[in-house]
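User: My collaborator sent over this chain with a note saying "see what the structure looks like." That's all I know about it. Can you take a look?
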Amino acid sequence: MILPYCVYVLQSEKDLLLYHGYTTNLENRLINHNAGKTISTSKRRPLRLIFCEFFLSKKDAQRREKYFKTTQGKRMLKLMLRKTFIEIGYPN
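Assistant: Without extra context I'll predict from the sequence alone. Here is the result:
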């Protein structure tokens, strides 16, 4: 079974900040982000994918994306991806 909804986290290589989103086509979404076709990230290019999760339910994906944007969600990501954050030079 293919899980159609993907929640992803990108890091800007320009300012090191994170961007959270969800999509049904991760490859195209990354291409669009890095081509400047997404207003919220166009000035923060290039961007790289550092995390993604797939879901069967659109509502679950939307809820997860929203959670990652909360203080608690950001804290959880820092714990879950602590080694990744060290490797990518994410500021503390």
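A starting point for your reply to your collaborator: The beta strands are 5-12, 18-23, 47-55.
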